[in-house]
Design a protein that fits this description.
Two copies of one chain form a homodimer.
Chain A (H helix, E strand, L loop, with lengths): L7 E6 L4 H13 L4 E5 L7 H7 L3 H5 L2 E3 L2 H4 L5 E5 L10 E2 L1 H13 L4 E5 L8 H4 L4 E3 L12 H24 L10 H17 L8 H15 L3 H25 L1
Parallel strand pairs in A: 1-2, 1-6, 2-3, 4-6, 4-7, 5-7
Helix pairs in contact in A: 1-2, 1-7, 5-7, 8-9, 8-10
Chain lengths: ~250, ~250
């Protein structure tokens, strides 16, 4: 079945180290992708590719082989090339996040999309960049910007997965998650907290407002849910019970 | 000179493949980081580590060595552990992006921060997770969620770099801000809280672990500063005093 994910392919051009092909296959599979296309890899198949693929041998086994990038992206409506900065080819520069959003949107509307990575030593040739519609730059430290090829694939596939998940959840809304305590629940807790501080003689003559202000701020920051409020009130109730015994005991 | 980046460290615990240590060093350096801490690596130094580090040999050479995770994060006020989902340890779950934002914010306010990765085969032990303030989950495909260790480090360091760049461009805004409580301060508070719950007879025969786990999560989520920890401990001390009077009173 064709899915949005199946319309997203990662293309590796002229890869030199077969281990990077295997690591890239693993990166794809962990991020929910399965289409890997190889353009003229130097050595493939290879034991290093199999070893680095780990549990993603299926992605490796079904990788497409092409002689040229033009052939690998012939059916694609969007082709994004990953490059280091400051290339001579004037392509629109995209951050990985923007690139992923654009790729997922295009795939969602039925287009085939390719994200392309060049050889380890040289990156994509100018000729191959001419086949790309925009350039993706990972914002590496300019002092040492040389990401490993599979690491760059991991970053891009990670962003593709986030973009896919965001697109899915924009579809069905309704975050399950924790349900935050209501205003009334919180105020009930703060009221009991203030009373408990009195009963355990916390203030010792100082004005009670300052401590309560700090405590309110702290607990509001935590974003308590209703269960947590009940837990905290249970603790306060026991402290109050002990304080009441304490007061009668010290009488 | 101490910088915000120098307060962010990546900690690898019990790494089995030295190549992953080298790849992680490269990931750090490309993302503008330099502090790598190694806890009981199986084989290090090793030729595979050197080979995979490529131009990041300096990061590898200056990597710290520790016998235990506790030692590696002793000075850290924020410790984030990367794990697969659905662990039995109930830590606040963070997406890489949230984790990076929190880490960069804490480092910017002067706190030492650690992001911790466990051994390849097993991940972090429950014991090591207990040293962490929150858990980071990379949103991998549940059908195959096994990221390579160095790939996971690349994802987190990439998010740290984005968060750092965002913080820089948000202007040197010179946030004076709160100074977060240290790990030791927090553990001192949790110890006293557990003792107080006993003394006010909160558990009433139930296992105490569940309540303490929920309370830890709640207070860690709040990001307590040192003053707030002192305030909460003052309240606990008064509750303990009352409980002691109560026990003698009810005798």
């Amino acid at each position: 079945m064709e899915t949005s994910a199946s319309r997203l392919r990662i293309v590796l051009v002229g890869t030199q180290h077969p281990g990077n092909i295997g690591s890239s296959a693993r990166a794809l599979k962990t991020m929910g992708l399965s289409r890997l296309a190889l353009v003229a890899p130097e050595r493939f198949p290879h034991a290093d590719a199999d070893a680095m693929a780990a549990g993603a041998g299926d992605v490796l086994a079904s990788a497409e082989r092409h002689a040229t990038l033009a052939e690998a992206v012939a059916d694609c409506r969007l082709v994004l090339g990953c490059t280091a900065r400051d290339r001579r080819v004037a392509l629109e520069p995209l951050a990985p996040r923007e690139a992923a959003a654009r790729a997922v949107e295009a795939a969602g509307s039925g287009a085939a999309v390719a994200i392309v990575f060049g050889p380890e030593r040289t990156g994509l040739s100018n000729e191959d960049l001419h086949l790309c519609h925009a350039a993706v730059h990972i914002p590496a430290d300019p002092a040492y910007s040389s990401l490993n090829l599979a690491a760059a694939v991991q970053v891009l596939t990670y962003e593709l997965r986030l973009a896919s998940l965001a697109a899915e959840s924009a579809g069905d809304g309704a975050e399950l998650g924790r349900s935050l305590a209501s205003h009334a629940e919180l105020e009930g807790f703060f009221g009991q907290l203030a009373q408990t501080l009195d009963e355990i003689d916390f203030h010792k003559g100082r004005a009670p407002d300052s401590a309560m202000r700090k405590l309110r701020r702290l607990y509001l920051r935590a974003g308590l849910d209703a269960k947590e409020v009940r837990l905290l009130r249970g603790i306060l109730a026991d402290a109050q019970r002990m304080a009441s015994l304490g007061r009668s005991g010290s009488r």
